[in-house]
Amino acid sequence: MLKRSDWLESKGLPSWRQDAGLVSELTENPDGSMWILEADGRPVGCTTLTDSTPPMAWTPAELAESSLYLYTTITDPSFSRWKPGTLIALWAVDRAFRAGAAWVRRGCRFDGLVAYYERQGFTVIHMMRKTHGPMYLMGRPAERIEELPDRFAASVPDRL
Fold first, then answer.
1. C-alpha to C-alpha distance for 2 and 151, rounded to whole angstroms
2. 114-151 b/e with 16+ CB inside 10 Å = b?
3. Is pTM, for the whole model, over 0.70?
């Protein structure tokens, strides 16, 4: 997470540095909602995936739909060539499908992340104003990702 914070700060973007303790605590969730992506035993990224969507600006009908909520996805930028963030998102879409959920939802605050998540197949469903700027609520229908095992295999670097 500190490498990602360094990378974000070098681009003048807000980083995770001040939230390192909070994210670390998520790894101890007894519900098992924090997931770690590893390559040869080395952490490459992490994410949190839950079956409860924060209500924010979602409509009652949307909240009634089955979904998984993806958040706190952080990857090591030195592995960007293998697109670990995209791999994590596809894993969540496939996992939601296998769990019988209709959607994977996520939220973000930055236009750059919106564009990145759109490249992963997510769509902005709602935009709300928060104290510190906009919050984009995004979703992608759950679906089986047939090539997921191959993508995992191709994402493991030959040398770490």
1. 26
2. beebeebbbeebeeeeeeeeebbbbbbebeebeeeeeb
3. yes
pLDDT confidence bin for 96, thresholds 50/70/90: very high
Average pLDDT, integer, range 119-136: 91
C-alpha torsion sign, points 62, 63, 65, 67: positive
Span 57-84, pLDDT tens digits: 899 999 999 999 998 888 888 888 889 9
Tell me the two tokens of residue 110: 């930055």
Closest CA to 108 of 90, 132, 86, 134: 134
Around 111, how many Cα atoms within 13 Å sit in the side-chain half-sphere? Answer: 0
